Amino acid sequence: MAAFRLHCFGQSGNSYKPALMLALCGADWEPVLVDYFGGETRQAGWRDGLNEMGECPVLEHDGRTLSQSGVILDYLAEVLGQFGGRDADEKREIWRWVLFDNHKFTSYFATHRFLNALAEPRGNPDVIAFLRARTTAAFKVLDQHLATRAWTVGGRPTIADLSMAGYVFYPEAETGFDLRAEFPNIAAWADRIAALPGWQAPYDLMPSQR
Ligand SMILES: N[C@@H](CCC(=O)N[C@@H](CS)C(=O)NCC(=O)O)C(=O)O
Fold it and tell me: Is this entry keyworded Transferase (predicted)?
C-alpha cells in the first residue's frame, strides 16, 4: 500500500489540490476512487469512517485521516518539506490566500462549474449568472495580484498557488470561463504551474467514472 492514500474523484478540483501537491513532490501516493455521483459520500458508513462532513478529499497517512484541502496541503507541506512558508509571516500570508480560495475563489468557481456542466438537471440560469458574477469578482482579485508577481506568496510556488489551482485546469466546456481571454495573468500563472516538474492535469492524475 502507498504511504499516502487520497480519497478523490477526477471531477473534484478540491481533491486535485492535494493530488497535485503529491505529484509535484514525487510522493508515494495512490488515489482511491470515490463514487461521488453514486452517492458514496452521503452514506453513513463513508461519513462515519472517513469524513463526517461528507466531502472529498480525504487523505490517509501514518494513522491520520485528514479532510479539508487547505489542512491537507498544510500537512503535506510540513511532512514533505515543500511548498510551505519559510517563516511565520509567510505561513500566515499563505493561510490568508487559502481561506480566500476556500470562501470565494474555488467555492464560487466550482459551484458555477457544477451547475453549468455536471449537475443533472443543469442549474437554474439565474443562479448560474449569480455564481458567474461572484467568480469573476474573485478572479479579478487574483488576476490583479498576479499582475506584478509570478506567484501568490513569497516569490515561489506555495500551497497557496496549489489551492487556487484546484479548478483552473478543467476544460472551458465545463467551467464556462475562457481564462486566457478574461484573466490573462491567471492564465500565465496557470502555465507556470503546468510547467512545474511532475505536473499532470486533473483527469490524468485522478480516476473518474464518467
Ligand atoms: N472546503 C472543502 C470543500 C470540499 C468539497 O466541497 N468537496 C466536494 C467535492 S469537490 C464534495 O465532496 N462535496 C460534497 C458535498 O458538498 O456534499 C475542501 O477544500 O476540501
Answer: yes
Residue whose CA is at the smallest distance from ligand 1 atom 19: 69
88-194: CATH class? mainly alpha
Q: Where are the domains of the chain?
A: 4-83+198-205, 88-194
> What residues pair up with 33 in beta bridges, in sequence order?
8
For the CA of 56, the closest atom of ligand 1 is 12
Judge whether residue 210 has pLDDT over 80.
Answer: no
Q: In what order do the strands lie in the sheet with 29-33?
A: 29-33, 4-8, 58-61, 64-67
Q: How does pLDDT run across 161-180, given as a tens digit for each residue?
A: 999 999 999 999 999 999 99
**Spatial distance between the Cα atoms of 70 and 107, rounded to a whole number of angstroms:** 13
Average pLDDT over residues 74-100: 98
CA 148 to centroid of ligand 1, rounded, Å: 31
As a CATH number, domain 4-83+198-205 is 3.40.30.10
- How buried is 151 (Cβ within 10 angstroms: 0-12 exposed, 13-18 middle, 19+ buried)? middle
What value does the mean pLDDT take over residues 47-64?
98
